[in-house]
Amino acid sequence: MRLFTLVLLLSVAIALTAGAALVLAPGSHPSVGLALFVSPTEVERQLLWQLRLPRQVLSFFAGALLASAGGAIQARFRNSLAEPGLIGISGGAALSAALALQFGLPVTWVSLLAFAGGLGALGLTCLISRQSVDNDRLILAGIAVNAIFGSLLTLLITTLPDGSLRTITFWLMGSFANADWPQARLFLLAAPWLVWLLFREWRLLNLLQLGPETAFHQGFDPRRGGARVVLFAAMAVALVVSHCGMVGFIGLMAPHLARQLVGSHARRLQIAAPLIGGWLALLADWLAQSLLYPAELPVGVITSLAGAPFFLWLLRQSGRRSRHA
Amino acid sequence: MLEASHLTLRHDGLTLLDDLSLTAACGELTLIIGPNGAGKSTLLSLLSGLRMPASGQIRLCGHDPYRLGARELARLRAVVEQAPGWQPGFSAAELVMMGGYLPAGRQADWRDAMRLMRCDALAERRLETLSGGERQRVHLARALLQLLCSDATQRLLLLDEPTAALDFGLADALMAQLRELAQTHRIGIVAVVHDLNLAGRHADRILLMKNGCGAAFGTPSEVMRKERLEAIYGVRLAELISQDEQLRAFVPLSGTDERD
Asked: What is the largest CA-CA distance in chain B?
């Protein structure tokens, strides 16, 4: 476990320096990035500290938050195909952001409203599922809320002025391009705290994987505890969506990769998944900037391109498992 | 330590349990038997505090279980359901350790629980590589650890069909083990089983149920009467008695099913 954490932290450091190397040219060797940290020219130093680093910090912690929420949501719903977006949070945040843009509000307000919209969507999901946190009902309600918000969003997009269309695309496809230090500082403070809040529920997350009855018999309250987990995960996802838009599939992929490496035990998974999630987000952002350089792809395109086949592979695996069970 | 009196439970207009009473003592193995749909598992869910009866009363170690929180209840009783959940990616030892998650006053070693349930050799194995019977044992060790960690003076272990996934040799051995465990650790054990002969051989007390009612409750010799069992199960039985009259077994006579 210690070796694993060390390897992962090292790879995150390499990813950070590789990202920094992008200051010079796409696809530069990570060592170039390292050199930038050691002896930068004044211009490079400005680029590095004002553009590159906040973006690296934002993307790493956004990935970590999505992965942490994904691991917790998968354990909570005993469903390895579950993803934070499933319970309506992403749809709510995107719609709120679009509404804020429609009214011409400043970016800070757009982020705040997107955060509130994400949490509001979760509330609506719970209301539709009649305050039940039963697995199937909540996920079905989440799909319904996503569908409603998705169609409202499409309606809204048709009425948006051209200038706002570009910004709304950012929300729909996800991007770390607008990163600045205030955002990075917020993520530096909030992300470790949210990851920690989800990590400290590891006992409950383990027991919930055995079923709510077992959790109850072992002395835990599965309703209140489960609701707490969903709330923390919703806060994590809403924070990401409100600043980076909808970056799909990291919340699904990272916990799965972590599970392959460290098993299902939540005490290990809720550490490994955020590290892997952060690393995946850095990698996806690096690809988004490098593939069509000097043009930049939305990062959500990269994560979806990798994530959709991954999801299908998982579906196939789970189908096989249930046939052999 | 467990007193349930006049329990009644209704659901969707159906009476699942009707005026049912039961007592269980520390150090004793109490087995619940009866045909399918008799309400055995439903009764267990009431005793565990998971469901509330429409009427009647349960006293668990002198407490009303429905007034206790999940945490306090977990100090007094542990439960292994009929098909306890599991996820791939956990080792058997990790599953057993979950029994000790709640600090309940006493230090206990998960290895002891695994040894007592004779599954310590499985400790490092992943759950997906275990058979159904092996997993059942690991779950039993988890529930046992929960009780070993408890500082309560009276403790109850509730098991729903613990022998369902075991062959008859292992099922017999498990029942003997459970009875020994009850006596040595002064734990009250209440378990649902389907095998009448297993119940007759190992139980200190038996509750025989039919249609949500208690048909008989007492020692095996009081409850296990051929005519009564034939009436309850609706099947003709042959009663086999060993030469020294120490062992009795009931064998259903095929082709004489009277249930229809």
From this structure: 56
A211, A317, B149 from B131: Cα distances, Å: 19, 20, 27
- The structural domains of chain A, ordered by start, are 2-324 (1.10.3470.10)
Min Cα separation B114/chain A (Å):
17
Nearest-CA distance A313 → chain B (Å): 17
Using a CB–CB cutoff of 8 Å, tell me whether B66 touches chain A: no
Dihedral of CA atoms A75, A78, A84, A88 in degrees, nearest 10, equals -140
Peptide bond into A294 cis (omega under 30): yes
In order of their start, the domains of chain B are 2-224 (3.40.50.300), 234-260 (no CATH)
Alpha-carbon gap, residue A302 to A300, rounded angstroms: 5
Closest-CA distance, A59 to chain B, in angstroms, reads 29
- Give the pLDDT confidence of A219-261 residue by residue, as tens digits: 999 989 988 998 899 889 888 988 888 888 899 889 999 998 8
Please answer yes or no on whether B87 and A321 come within 8 Å at the CB atom: no
Q: How many CB atoms lie within 10 A of CB A181?
A: 14
Minimum Cα–Cα distance from B143: chain A residue: A218
Task: Decide: A84 and A66 in contact? Cβ < 8 Å.
Answer: yes
DSSP reduced 3-state for A131:
coil
- Count Cβ neighbours within 10 Å for each residue of B140-159 and write b for 16 or more, e otherwise: bbbbbbbbbbbebebbbbbb
Predicted ipTM?
A: 0.90
Q: Is B52 on the interface with A (CB under 8 A)?
A: no
- Give the pTM: 0.86
